[in-house]
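Bug: token stream looks shifted between consecutive jobs. Job 1:
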Amino acid sequence: MKFAIKPVVLAVALSTASLAAAAGDTWTDTAKDAWIDGKAETTLLFNEHLSAFDINTDVKDGVVVLTGKVEHEVDKALATELIMSLDGVTKVNNQLTVMQNQDDGDSEIMADLKDSKVETVVKTRLLFESEVSGLDIEVEAKRGTVTLSGKVKSEAERDLAVAIAKRTDDVKNVVDKLKVVKAVS
């Protein structure tokens, strides 16, 4: 009888361990989705062309679902581009409702929106990088050229900020106007 009980106990122990492992993966996935959701909401908040209060985000397995309303079709496209550029996002399901249907074929408007997207993405990446004083760095984009200005604490921080900007989609050139300001002891 002792020998019959051991396999049952072993099977129960393995089942419990396997359930615990599966629960751990679910927790990890949930935490990752929450992180992506926070980055998505922050990105929308920092974009001056979109109202983050009118756009809701929900994330499941790296897929971001956007719901709410925007003024124009171009705003809907901008929201998709901004969120798709975030690390960890695998897909954007854009269910935003367009309040005014406007066919903006004007390339000037599209260029301005692309610049706005680039500014937002660079600024968000700087804010999420713990080794960079993202709040002290201004970001401007014009036709693919990003200008960084403000204060950093070291040459290494300057180099990291410039590298982050250069790694961003649609950035062709980075103008470094950052000033290294040593902390006073």
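Job 2, same session, no restart:
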Amino acid sequence: MNGPEANGAGANGAGANGAGVGGSGGGTPGGEVYDWYTRGVALLDRGNANAAVQLLAHAVAAEPDSRSVREALARAQFDAGQYGAARESFAWIVDNDPADDYAQFGLGMAARRTGDLRAAVEHLALAAAMRPDLRHYGQALRGARAALNRP
């Protein structure tokens, strides 16, 4: 799984099927929303987050209420270094389902990357409380708390 520093990105390179956004000319990618989603996730899994963001943004525009598409976009945005955008995407998920531990974690990680350590600690604490079995949640929380308490 990619995303907010969960396990790191996959191998670089888009491969034969995911070299770009696809489609003809440059507007909307070819295929249907599900195709954009699956191609976007495949690009993300191969470490091509910027291309994944492009495809997944089209999918979110077409299916704005899909949590799975929003989560994939948020993960791609985070991996592409678009922390403000990732924060907005994870916040949308949290607003719709505050009990989503992964979205809380992602929102906390994105908040930390944008320099909002108080928000980072708040969301990481929620994620760690929901899933104490996930060590990386607790590690991220401890790191954010330490950063917040630095002079």
